[in-house]
User: What shape does this take?
Amino acid sequence: MNNNQQPLNKPNGTGIKRLFKATYCSLLGFKAAWQHEAAFRQESILVLVLLPFSFAIATSINHWLILLFSLLFLLFAELVNSALEALADKITLQHDELIGRAKDIGSALVFIALMFLKLIWIIAALQYFQII
Assistant: This one.
């Protein structure tokens, strides 16, 4: 609703139609990330490689969910970073301090996700092999 309490024209529809359109747009986002972002492809392959191991090394459903979350968090971080970089590059390809800062912050998000994944999986592996 706008200030006049009139319904806004929703270009993607409402209800179930909007849900289908949103799903379609999300799939386009995954496709674009796969086609244009090498880091997303590499991290997706890492997720696909580690996912089967998560079933083997998890000691409980909660443990498995933590392993899964660490994998999905990495993909989430990479998608956010890739979207931020695409927008920044659309604005200008010339050096700009604020755009550089935004890109660095996005990169830091991916770094945190990678370190979180590494920590979670190292601890899980150490527990699996009864080292700790």
Q: What stands out?
A: The longest helix spans residues 97-128. The chain has a mean pLDDT of 94. The chain has four helices and no strands. The two ends are 56 Å apart (CA to CA).
